[in-house]
Structures are given as structure tokens and as C-alpha cells.
Amino acid sequence: RYTIAEQILKKIDKAPDANKEIKREIPAAFANLYIKKKEYSLALAALSNALDFAKNKDQKARYLFIMAQIHELNGNIKNAFDGYDKVIKLSNNYDMAFNAKLNKVKASRKSGKITRSVAISQLNNMLKDSKNQGYEGKIYFTKAEVELEEGEIADAIANFKNALSYSGNSQSVQTEAYYKLASLLYDQENYINSKLYYDSTLAVMSPTDDRILEVRTFSTNLSDIVRNIQV
Questions:
Q1: What is the pTM of this model?
Q2: Quick one: which of 109, 114, 112, 136 has its CA closest to 125?
């Protein structure tokens, strides 16, 4: 009930006697609301306000990270690159800084700052770094995304499979890798394996994911096709 939520937030924000700690959280709450509504320009403005109320560097870095993600989603790669760069310099949280580094590599390639070979080389160096043990799944997934952007489908598929092999307990990596593989193999008319990956996607995907209906539809529609191919 977004409209009611927005009205309540505005009422609290304007109330002179509202608790100061609660009022500090209002800009971030607005940003969360606007992201859910996919009103990204309003979300960016709210996050910019939230930066002024951030309690520490890590919270500030988190807001910057989300802003960079929105810029990347909107195709504003330069702002995305700058945002990820700020997060890396600011955050004391290794996980956040690591993800910012991965996204910075992608943004660098998309903006033409580096070549494909340089991007892959940087990611391979991250794989060799002992500090990134346990993060290999995310690195392989990013390699696959870079290859996919370049049209190197075979290499992308291989690296999405590597991402699954090293995903550990990461539900997000598993969901995205299964989904990408299902889609790519469907495009190649490899319906048997595509069906298997759509089924795997359903097994790990959050029921609140916006794509759940799409995945379920593909999985169902492929059942008869796969049965006939196997016969």
C-alpha cells in the first residue's frame, strides 16, 4: 500500500515533535519505497538526503552502493563507476567493497575504460587472491556477464556453470546463474537442458521475485516439448 506508506512518511517527516532518531531514518525509508515502486529518480534524491543522516562510513557506503546500482540500471555508467569507486575507498566492510570492485570492473568495461581482455584479467587476479576465497562464485558470475556483454555465449555459459560450482550457499548466485543458463540454452533451442535449469531456478528462487511467474511458465510450457523430444 505504497500511497498510504508515502503519506505516513511525509506526515512523520513534517511533524516537529517526531523522534529525532526516527526522522533520521525517513530519507532511507523514502528511498526504499521509491525503489519498490521503480521510481528511481526519486529514490536517488532520497538516498542523497540519506547520506546527510548516515551514522557511519559503512552506512554511507551502503547508500552510495545502492545509488551506483541505480545509475547502472539507468545506463548512466560513468556515475555508476564513480559511485562504486567511492564505496571501495570508504567502506570498511570487505563484502561490500568486494562487490563494489566486481561492479566497477563491469562498469569499466561497459564505459570503454578497459578492454574485455583487461576486465577478464582483473577478474582472474581476483580469483587468485586468497582473500577472495569463498567469493569465487560471484567472480565467475561476473566473468560470465562480461563475456555475455561481448557476445561470447559459449564462454559465458561455461562461466555461469563455474559460478554454480563455486556458489556455496549463495542463493543469489545460484538463482541468477540458473536463470541465465536457462534463458541462454532456450535461445539456442536446447530445450531439454533449458527445462532442467528453469526447474533449478524455481527450486532456489525467492517466491517474491518478480520473475517467478515467467520462470514457472517456461518450465511448464517446456514439459511437453521435452517429453516429445525424449520420446
A1: 0.86
A2: 136
